[in-house]
Design brief:
- By secondary structure, the chain is mostly beta strands.
- 0% of the residues lie in helices and 31% in strands.
- It is built from no helices and 8 strands.
- A 3-stranded antiparallel β-sheet has the order 1-2-5, with no helix packed on it. A 3-stranded antiparallel β-sheet has the order 6-7-8, with no helix packed on it. A two-stranded antiparallel ribbon has the order 3-4.
- It is globular.
Length: 110
């Protein structure tokens, strides 16, 4: 497949789900000229960036990510400007925060 790149920073993590999506996290702000912020989702078959998938990780650290059973992701966040959020969040398949997920973490995960 064609690649959506170039990426304007470092990619630290790549995670593939079972539905043909590839998730990236790192210290980047754009892929292929499209604005993204530290997290992105690509279609594995086409290499195309999903511009509708727009999570909003906070802080200066790229979030660790893991695939959730519902097709979304678990991500740890650095809460400098959003202290009301948990340290670990679950994102839906569209990148939105799952309001029903409640983590028990007491410190940031790197």
């Amino acid at each position: 497949p064609a690649w959506a790149g170039p990426v304007d920073g470092r990619v630290d993590r790549l995670v593939r789900d079972g539905s043909g999506r590839l998730y990236l996290s790192g210290s980047f702000q754009s892929i292929g000229g499209q604005d993204v912020f530290r997290m992105a989702q690509l279609d594995l078959a086409t290499g195309v960036l999903n511009t509708a998938w727009r999570p909003d990780p906070d802080g200066g650290f790229p979030p660790p990510i893991a695939v959730a059973a519902n097709g979304g992701l678990y991500a740890s966040i650095y809460r400098a400007s959003m202290p009301e959020l948990p340290l670990v969040v679950r994102l839906g398949p569209d990148g939105s925060l799952d309001p029903f997920f409640n983590d028990a973490a007491t410190t940031e995960i790197y």
